[in-house]
Design brief:
- The structure is a single chain.
- By secondary structure, the protein is of the alpha+beta class.
- Helices cover about 25% and strands about 30% of the residues.
- The protein is built from six helices and 16 strands.
- The strands form four sheets. It has an eight-stranded mixed β-sheet. Strands 3-6-8-7 form a four-stranded antiparallel β-sheet, covered by helices on one side. It has a two-stranded antiparallel ribbon with strand order 1-2.
- A hairpin with a 2-residue loop joins strand 12 and strand 13.
Amino acid sequence: MTGRARFWIMHTANTDADDRQQVTYSKPGRRPQFFYTTAPLPCPYVAGRTERKVVTEIAGADAEALHDRLSRAGFRRSHNIAYAPVCPSCNACVPIRIPVARFHPGRTLRRIARDNALVEGFEVPARATAEQFQLFQRYQNNRHGDGDMAGMSFYDYRAMVEDTPIETMMVEFRDPDDRLIGACLTDRLGDGLSAVYSYFVPGLEKRSLGTYAILWLIERARELGLPHVYLGYWVPESRKMAYKARFTPTEILARGAWRTLTDAELDEAGEAAPVVLVPESTG
């Protein structure tokens, strides 16, 4: 039978066949997934442009599967909301991911890995701690003092970390003295790891800890047999978001299909904006 199921309820006092009741129920259908468009706001990446997003809630028993599908379609997660840009007359934000099996670090990335050889990454549950929050505040005040996140309370930070309907972890990066020097909120997908947000100790920019965090995720995905590391959106015109294309080869989502970002596209993007290897966030 399609869409219906049949089972028997047996009376406890009498188990004769004549006393059995046939009960049927309709298998509940999948709940409709609603999508909404946000109001226009100034773009945080490209000056003078307007940002709009399509958003939907991630909830219910199929939250993991829904998040997987949305991630492959170019969405990102914040709390229990998935979002993607639908900006008018602009397609600057390009979903980007790293194919783990094909990734080979170049000279600069190998140097960053060597510079941080004594740093250890630890996967811990997505639970906010005072130690994390102190580092998060230092990072925000140093790098984004005029941004909205600089004013986040501990309860706001805890919601960012813990308000998740899917499998999420925090990767803590510690030096040989067990000092917390960086962290990366990370989602586990069916086909990879997704870097949600990263932050690190101010003053260690030369160590490129944000870049090292991504290198760590690539190796961890390789160990887990996961094919991709999702980095969010590559924005060639934004200095703080252009670095993501330097983990070659990378794949971008274009016209509904993932494909390898070409050298010609990288060269063109390099002319549009300077590239830095230290990310300000992973968004």
